[in-house]
């Protein structure tokens, strides 16, 4: 087991202890040990061989012993014992939004509920609302959480599934005689939460199918034909492989990349031009037209090349026809990022470590923004501590060892009434202010929209953080009139963040086209809580591309001098 697998086991144990109503300090200790392990720079084998486990914060003798046994055997007697004591369905119930260990215990003890199915039935019968500490609203929310869970369970975050797809692709590339292997389907289009992995290949089909179905990560083989196979991956997702010939490859590639809407529009276009398009080829008067690659297929259809992430049937074909597709932003256009947390609030690395890592990425600037005072849970900064951080940043910027320019900022909570968490005397000293909603998600759509617009109208607001508060596959966006908020940002000359944290990707790519038309500038922000978190920017770029953004539409593609000027001009009003 590697350290991540061991950390997962420790977290599983913490969850079971919590369900058993064990001492909360013990529960916290397990979780801390798991974090500590994952944050360590060294591999687990190294930590054990050199007897350095107990040097990690939060790992005492007892946990050290557990980690060593988990590492060696993949389990631990204490874990096995817990597993026997706890109904497995109760652990699954804890995955539901709004259900912690305490509530799961109440449901179990009060109504004998042991599974999601039983919970659903009890909610439908109105039994849950009658239970103490629950009520009708909670019952309604639980039913909603259950239906979400069923839907979300089938999907995975792009950031989780893409590396898996990539590993399969690489494995198949190593088969002798293979000519192409591509990840297709929604992953190729950068979908935020793909449901499965689709792979297309050309080459020796028997060897490819054999290599595919005998991968170590295969849990079961679902189907195995001459040119097609499906497996269930141990992550619980389905992976499909199709093998085709080189001559049909480009047509297959387009067909299996989709989307459905894009494919329909392409076929209709072919038809109008007197041709017939399918996954097997393009024909005109019974003549097979030949294409070496996707570019040539699009060319035969009178279109410039459409990059996969744009293939959603949202106007890309019309733009390709008139050669007006945008010159999309690239990862290398990024010159720095904003929305970065440090150990001053809930980040895991210090200001200096974040600066050092950003400098290594070749960036020119970094915008520091820890939490504001109302985010008590996240260690939000009092005015005094914020001033101290501002001084530390000034010192860094003036020091000889400076490697990057640091901007002074904050992620400022938006209060329930739309006002900001600090007074003007504080905000005016900062280079930028990100305003975010972290509480009161249940306001009505009108109230929430009004609240955000009021925050945007505050003269010290630079940009809006994670606009809708969604957590992909975990929490829906709060009700919000996004279009109205974009209009307000446009009217006030404010920036909207594209939060690149893999479970946020907020504002959604579907809204960027409109925001761009209104002249709203985007900022691709990693919302980094550690130095590795800075790397989230890359997926933010993917989402920006999917939203048709060009480099010039994004604040942090501009050079330092221009960014300084832009930030100043926003603070002095439209
Ligand atoms: Zn936030
Ligand atoms: Zn944040």
TrEMBL record:
<dbReference type="InterPro" id="IPR037160">
    <property type="entry name" value="DNA_Pol_thumb_sf"/>
</dbReference>
<dbReference type="GO" id="GO:0005829">
    <property type="term" value="C:cytosol"/>
</dbReference>
<dbReference type="GO" id="GO:0140078">
    <property type="term" value="F:class I DNA-(apurinic or apyrimidinic site) endonuclease activity"/>
</dbReference>
<dbReference type="GO" id="GO:0008270">
    <property type="term" value="F:zinc ion binding"/>
</dbReference>
<dbReference type="Pfam" id="PF14716">
    <property type="entry name" value="HHH_8"/>
</dbReference>
<feature type="domain" description="Helix-hairpin-helix DNA-binding motif class 1">
    <location>
        <begin position="51"/>
        <end position="70"/>
    </location>
</feature>
<dbReference type="InterPro" id="IPR029398">
    <property type="entry name" value="PolB_thumb"/>
</dbReference>
<dbReference type="InterPro" id="IPR043519">
    <property type="entry name" value="NT_sf"/>
</dbReference>
<dbReference type="InterPro" id="IPR002054">
    <property type="entry name" value="DNA-dir_DNA_pol_X"/>
</dbReference>
<dbReference type="InterPro" id="IPR016195">
    <property type="entry name" value="Pol/histidinol_Pase-like"/>
</dbReference>
<dbReference type="InterPro" id="IPR050243">
    <property type="entry name" value="PHP_phosphatase"/>
</dbReference>
<dbReference type="GO" id="GO:0003887">
    <property type="term" value="F:DNA-directed DNA polymerase activity"/>
</dbReference>
<dbReference type="GO" id="GO:0003677">
    <property type="term" value="F:DNA binding"/>
</dbReference>
<dbReference type="InterPro" id="IPR010996">
    <property type="entry name" value="HHH_MUS81"/>
</dbReference>
<comment type="function">
    <text>Repair polymerase that plays a key role in base-excision repair. During this process, the damaged base is excised by specific DNA glycosylases, the DNA backbone is nicked at the abasic site by an apurinic/apyrimidic (AP) endonuclease, and POLB removes 5'-deoxyribose-phosphate from the preincised AP site acting as a 5'-deoxyribose-phosphate lyase (5'-dRP lyase); through its DNA polymerase activity, it adds one nucleotide to the 3' end of the arising single-nucleotide gap.</text>
</comment>
<dbReference type="Pfam" id="PF14791">
    <property type="entry name" value="DNA_pol_B_thumb"/>
</dbReference>
<dbReference type="GO" id="GO:0006281">
    <property type="term" value="P:DNA repair"/>
</dbReference>
<keyword id="KW-0808">Transferase</keyword>
<keyword id="KW-0488">Methylation</keyword>
<dbReference type="Pfam" id="PF02811">
    <property type="entry name" value="PHP"/>
</dbReference>
<feature type="domain" description="Helix-hairpin-helix DNA-binding motif class 1">
    <location>
        <begin position="91"/>
        <end position="110"/>
    </location>
</feature>
<feature type="domain" description="Polymerase/histidinol phosphatase N-terminal">
    <location>
        <begin position="336"/>
        <end position="416"/>
    </location>
</feature>
<dbReference type="InterPro" id="IPR003583">
    <property type="entry name" value="Hlx-hairpin-Hlx_DNA-bd_motif"/>
</dbReference>
<dbReference type="InterPro" id="IPR004013">
    <property type="entry name" value="PHP_dom"/>
</dbReference>
<protein>
    <recommendedName>
        <fullName>DNA polymerase beta</fullName>
        <ecNumber>2.7.7.7</ecNumber>
        <ecNumber>4.2.99.18</ecNumber>
    </recommendedName>
</protein>
<dbReference type="InterPro" id="IPR002008">
    <property type="entry name" value="DNA_pol_X_beta-like"/>
</dbReference>
<keyword id="KW-0227">DNA damage</keyword>
<keyword id="KW-0237">DNA synthesis</keyword>
<dbReference type="InterPro" id="IPR027421">
    <property type="entry name" value="DNA_pol_lamdba_lyase_dom_sf"/>
</dbReference>
<feature type="domain" description="Helix-hairpin-helix DNA-binding motif class 1">
    <location>
        <begin position="126"/>
        <end position="145"/>
    </location>
</feature>
<dbReference type="GO" id="GO:0042578">
    <property type="term" value="F:phosphoric ester hydrolase activity"/>
</dbReference>
<keyword id="KW-0548">Nucleotidyltransferase</keyword>
<keyword id="KW-0235">DNA replication</keyword>
<dbReference type="InterPro" id="IPR022311">
    <property type="entry name" value="PolX-like"/>
</dbReference>
<keyword id="KW-0915">Sodium</keyword>
<dbReference type="InterPro" id="IPR047967">
    <property type="entry name" value="PolX_PHP"/>
</dbReference>
<feature type="domain" description="DNA-directed DNA polymerase X">
    <location>
        <begin position="1"/>
        <end position="312"/>
    </location>
</feature>
<keyword id="KW-0239">DNA-directed DNA polymerase</keyword>
<dbReference type="Pfam" id="PF14520">
    <property type="entry name" value="HHH_5"/>
</dbReference>
<keyword id="KW-0234">DNA repair</keyword>
<keyword id="KW-0832">Ubl conjugation</keyword>
<dbReference type="InterPro" id="IPR003141">
    <property type="entry name" value="Pol/His_phosphatase_N"/>
</dbReference>
